[in-house]
Amino acid sequence: MTNSIRRKILKASSAAVVASATSPLWYIGDASAQWNNTVEKGAKLRVLRWSRFVQGDIDAYMENVRKFTEKTGIEVRVDNEGWEDVRPKAAVAANTGAGPDIILSTNDDANLYPEKLLDVTDLCEYLGKKYGGWYPSCEGYLKPDGKHWIGVPLGATGSIMVYRESQVKAAGFNTFPRDTDGFLRMFKALKEKGTPGGLALGNATGDSGWTHWLVWAFGGSIVDKNNRVVIDSPETLKALEYAKELYATFVPGTLSWLDPNNNKAFLDGQVSATNNGISIYYAAKTSSDPKLKELALDINHSVMPIGPVGVPTEYHLFFNQMVMKYTKYPKAAKEFIRFMMEQEQYDKWLMGAGGYISQPLKAYESNAVWSIDPKHMPYRDSVKNLRPAGYAGKLGYASAGALADFIIPNMVAEAASGAKTPKEAAERAQKRAERYYKV
User: Fold this and answer.
1) Which of 92, 94, 159, 204 could form a disulfide with 113 if both were Cys (CB 3.0 to 4.6 A apart)?
2) What is the CATH topology of the domain spanning 21-158+316-385?
């Protein structure tokens, strides 16, 4: 990137932040949307959220927290934990009735203990009415009965392909493949060139999600629309055979990769293509290391290719905001989430996260973060296009439990690595899933 281009981007970014700050009502879906809420006297809140992969995320989030306290006088303590640690801590809090007032968790964790969560239907209806409505996946995750919201959608981090443009072109591909056949050919060519790719096959909360995309891309699913377990199917076997060929091109070690591993491997030059949020690009372009800054110029992004089913089958890491029913300050908790989701705060958070977060409310599609850098745009519609991990069934205890148990990633890893035949891996996944789904 030339200095002149970099200056233009920085200038545009500054202008967008100023515009955000000076035009807090840039979009009102319904001006009649009203929110009336008197918080409890002496309220204090504790928030548990996942640790940042992008520094701008936590910086902007904490600035909004500071503004909330300044405006309301409500003290807010924010604790940060890794994704893998939030889930068990949230479960303990739900079961013991003590802990954080608000928990920012992932995917359909809220469906593990819906009866332990505060009904936030009034808040979600207010926000949806004001900001153009929620994307369908949000209702799938957090409105399981079709009537009541058990959590407030926060967004998602896109799980798409991050790649080195120069190395993909050197392998013979001028554009990133749009179908699974081309995707496999590209990975084979990258390995032949000595610049292999790699996708996480460990129990990674976010980055092993590509395995769901893979199964869906070939027409498989863990359950059908009636929640009957159907993962041991001809379609799944085709996906697993494909996974074996793909895995043979990977850099060694992907079976144990957790969420940080592919970031490090890419930034260290060990892989030329992986699936991830925008955090790899963000880390490179904001680094003080000249080599990483140079690497950022070569990084690009693409949505996952389309498989034999002929339609996108995107999986992304969904984020929710749960208010625990045991909280002493339910009104203050709702007020905090409302404040954080309003345009003046949420707009700045999206900008601060630099494309790491995709919005759950339609109005925020026009946030400047998506237009300030063309490399951000592939992440914009992540919430809009995602399939819940419990596809094609109804979300609930079973889907949340099966997802938390990494049934699909484990099945793909077993078959891809040769630890089991595709049929054996699918049969084991079927039995594991049936322990959760009891129709």
Assistant:
1) 94
2) D-Maltodextrin-Binding Protein; domain 2 (3.40.190)
